[in-house]
Amino acid sequence: MWRADITYLQLENGVWVYLSTVFDDQTYKILSQKVSKHMTSKLVSHTLIESLKKNKKPEYLHSDMGSQYTSSIFEHVLEGHEIRHSYSQKGHPYDNGPIEAFHSILKREFAFQTRFTSFEDVVLKTENYIHWYNTERIRIAV
């Protein structure tokens, strides 16, 4: 199963940007990520499409019930690839625990320790961190 979610990152000038990620439960890796200035259904759809370009499609994708994930644009991408969509129950954020845990690790190990001077800086540094996370970081469970 794949999981999808969005988290917030802050530039040093106080501007917020949005990191969309797709996580694979089988490999404990981030399959794709995109950073955007806007939190939209296009952002999460493009992140999913990038995952599908490089990986075998899952039977299910799990997300929360945010408007980006319940949008017709996102549902159309899922339907077009014959992927079933499961949602976290309202008030149960731990249903999406694996990707929430990744975002927590990303913030503790990286984002809270890093100054992002521009949008391009956060994109580059985030890509580098996720590459390190996927290829070099020691994991307890794999």
From TrEMBL:
Ranges where the Integrase catalytic domain occurs: 1-142
Coiled coil: none
SUPFAM superfamilies per record: Ribonuclease H-like (SSF53098)
Record-level Gene Ontology MF annotations: nucleic acid binding
InterPro entries: Integrase_cat-core (IPR001584), RNaseH-like_sf (IPR012337), RNaseH_sf (IPR036397), Transposase_IS3/IS150/IS904 (IPR050900)
GO biological process: DNA integration
PANTHER family: TRANSPOSASE INSF FOR INSERTION SEQUENCE IS3B-RELATED, TRANSPOSASE INSO FOR INSERTION SEQUENCE ELEMENT IS911B-RELATED
Stated name of the protein: Integrase catalytic domain-containing protein
Organism, scientific name: Fructilactobacillus sanfranciscensis (strain TMW 1.1304) (Lactobacillus sanfranciscensis)
